[in-house]
Amino acid sequence: MVGTWVPGLVGTAAAALLPWSGAALALVAVLALFLARRVLLLLLVPALVWALAMFPSLPGVGASPPTDAAALTIVSQNVRAHSGGAAASAGELAALGADVIAMAELDADSLTVAREALASEYPHAAAVGTVGIWSRFPIDDVQPLALGLDWKRALRAQVQTPSGTVAVYVMHAASVRPGEQQGRDAMLAGIAEAAASDPAEAIIVVGDFNAASADPALGAIRSELTWVRPTDGTLGLSWPAAVPLVRIDHVFVRGLDVERSTTQRAGSSDHLATVTTVSIPSATP
Questions:
Q1: Nearest Cα to Cα of residue 226 among 98, 11, 66, 56
Q2: pLDDT tens, 81-139?
Q3: What three-state secondary structure class fits 188?
Q4: Cα 278 to chain center, whole Å?
Q5: Euclidean distance between CA atoms 203 and 266, whole angstroms
Q6: 94 φ/ψ angles, rounded to the nearest 5 degrees
């Protein structure tokens, strides 16, 4: 609730708890039906506030692509540095039929094994800092992005699909800890500025944003691009993988129609992967 409107650590924490506060309200409402129905009236206001705050994060439905559009599937996962699971993640992500694979939290070893695992099917690749991109299609104009930090944790690359150029951003936002979220907030503001000034007609931004869906720090990029809603009827919760409690791995688009978007377990990472298929209008240069 408060997470949607209150910036800072309070808003960040509240955004992470937002889906579960709704479950708590529902439980209280069920108990009130049996114990004290007058309590239901008292729940109307908090329930309305919760619904308003939650609405931007609710799942969507798959869109039917235009008849002259071509599909592009992009998967993204934080593969968890030093977990030794990058090779397994790479293989399983490739098995999903992805055209583009994005990985975050890559260390030197995981980058090496990912390159080896994907080289034959994804010959076009680039890596910057802790992020990397692999593509079936040629990529060019790779740009490292610091986004307000002293080192680079994001990149922009142009993927030259048969149906047109798509600008792909891969993001690994700084972590959030009590009293320490300036780095993440700076990166989220930076990615929004980069998208706002990007002349590309078709843009997709993927990665680990370390921010729940309703986090106020995502407000800037939400105003520039469309946040991709899960189309599988879930909230797309992505972390921790064993028992997902919050969605911190996101997808944003501009100039692309979303056909489907879901999450998928891959490798031994503590993040689920996002799997998104978009359609590329034939007019995209």
A1: 56
A2: 888 889 999 999 999 999 999 999 999 999 999 999 999 999 999 999 999 999 999 99
A3: helix
A4: 14
A5: 25
A6: -65, -35
Q: Which pTM was predicted?
A: 0.85
Residue 125 amino acid letter: A
Q: Which 8-state DSSP code applies to residue 6?
A: -
Determine if residue 209 is left, alpha or beta; phi over 0 gives left, psi from -120 to 50 gives alpha, anything else beta.
alpha
CB of 85 within 8 A of CB of 274?
no
Angstrom distance (rounded) from CA 184 to CA 149: 9
Compute how many other C-beta atoms are within 10 angstroms of the C-beta atom of residue 182: 12
User: Which amino acid type is present at position 269?
Assistant: S
Single-letter amino acid code for the residue at 284: T
**Interatomic CA distance for residues 18 and 31, integer angstroms:** 20
Token couple for 11: 């808003």
> Could you tell me the pLDDT band of residue 39, with boundaries at 50, 70 and 90?
low
Structural tokens at position 135? 């593509």
Written as six digits, the tokens of 60 are 């969507």
Name the nearest CA neighbour of 90 among 145, 127, 141, 140: 127
Residue 238, helix vs strand vs coil? coil
pLDDT tens column, 134-151? 999 999 999 999 999 988
